[in-house]
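I'll show a sample.
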Amino acid sequence: MEFFSSILFDIMEHCVIMGDMNIDLLKFETHLKTSNYLDNLFQNVFLTKIIKPTRITSTSATLIDHEQHNSWKIRNYNNRCS
């Protein structure tokens, strides 16, 4: 996590982090590594754009597809994601 945090700190320009991270953001309250991941993002002014589950089954829901921006001046683009 220290390496990840140092990379975020060094980014001074607009940056987007996107991908299937296999980190379920819905578990931030119960999973320490997820909480640390989000804390690092927030401390470096990265905001999460996707806030609803991206995979839903009859027995579970997860949010492992991430899109974070370090600028809140980003246009919405109708929240399109695949």
Notes: The longest helix spans residues 32-43. Residues 2-73 form one domain. The chain has a mean pLDDT of 80. The chain has one domain: 2-73.
